[in-house]
Amino acid sequence: MGFSQKDIQQMLAHGLNTEEVQRQINILTNGLPFTKVLEPATIDNGIVKLDETAQQTYLDFFEQNKEQYTLQKFVPASGAATRMFKDWVFFHQNYQPGRHYYERFIRQHQLKNMPEYLDDFLNDFPGYAFYQDVMDVIKDTLPGYFQLDENEQAWQLIHFTLSEEGLNYAQKPKAFIKFHRYGKHTIKTALEEHLTEARAYTTGKNQKPQVEFSISSQHKKPFDELTERADPNRSIDISSSFQKPETDTVMLDKTSGELVRDHNDNLVFRPGGHGSLIDNIQDLDADIIFIKNIDNVQKGLAQETSIQYKKILAGYLMDLLEQNKKYLEQLQKEKPVGAALQEIEDFARQNMNIHFIEGYDTLNNSGKRRYLAYKLNRPIRVAGMVKNTGEPGGGPFWAKDANGIKSLQIVEKAQINTDDPQQQNILQQATHFNPVDLVVRIKDFEGNKFNLKEFVNEAAGFVTEKSYNGNPVKVYERPGLWNGAMDGWNTVFIEVPLETFSPVKTVTDLLKPEHQ
Q: Which residues, at least 6 apart from 337, have a Cβ–Cβ distance to it below 8 Å?
């Protein structure tokens, strides 16, 4: 595909070049291969289940060793809450109180994330932490609200929640949405709940708690204002980063196959998905990094369980790091053979879930040492996994990595060829789900940062369909942050309790007991 000089200038302004854009076009045109899953990771076959004694051991190990490490939390938080309010947005745009009845409209349009009955909607609404904010706006803007028909009241509640005339929640990121109410006067946004967590487990080597949020550039000012109100004494080191423009991707018109352009004939770029945030992770300098999604936060006592298991995962990682460093130093300096070399092989297989290349046993000792050092000296992730309850999203599987070797991976359903009966059967056998609950190390055993791009499996991206100005388009998302972007990392999965996973995918999730 030929590019004009104007196109090239736009690419350069994004930090892209013609080769990268052509690569994206080829992917959008030809698609990407499916990930071949070999079997689900299960308890004692890729997933570690810790008994109470082991949990306490790793919890104690974390507390005893945390001062040796700089600790930081990273929260992807740039996404707008539009999808969270999807049904409300449809209702707001299409419902006409004088013409429609609530119950009939909900059933007709199958708005599954809204109560079926009007009374339930009106009775449930005060359960939202942002209820009083909505009512304060209504009091100032619509004093006759309580004289309105109930159908009209329902529309107005949603109107003043979503629109610029009210809270403008449809356009704000989830980080800014008020999630939880504590008593009459204390209300916390999703961002503030993450700050509470960060205080609990990121105080490490001579440091205050640290947390970084990835945000959109247009939200920088309100982000700074919110964090200033939440932590006026600056007891937490709070930072933000933007998804880098050079990770943006182009789109193809589904009908014509041409690059999507705006009305001025400019190329249209879109964010390349959360996998682009591997660059943001690369820029962090902590020894151990906790990663958790913005919408997965608990309230009050439920948060204590989540915090405890974050510490357990970190303690497990710290123990792995100590052993891994010992063995890598032996491989580098002592040139082990015999039983000493066998011990390192056992650690790699049993503790780090590493599968060796075919023919490993035929290598001489020198070749085995080089291979072990190559496999052990790479980024490490310890990821919590919860029992599968039917939530949409990825899960833990044994799959073939970029080099065709069996490895533990977090794989999304969209990456699996569900038209293949064998692959579909493996998917249905999955026992656990990925809640995005990771503790990672991005430095080598000598303290030098890895180049994380070297471990990305570019073939593990996504091609999906979206719409642009009402027209169907094909879009490319880079390999997911905890999927293909970490394909080459050493991986350990540990079962964590389901109560540590309380995502807010739709607004009505905020009415569940764990958020009330």
A: 365
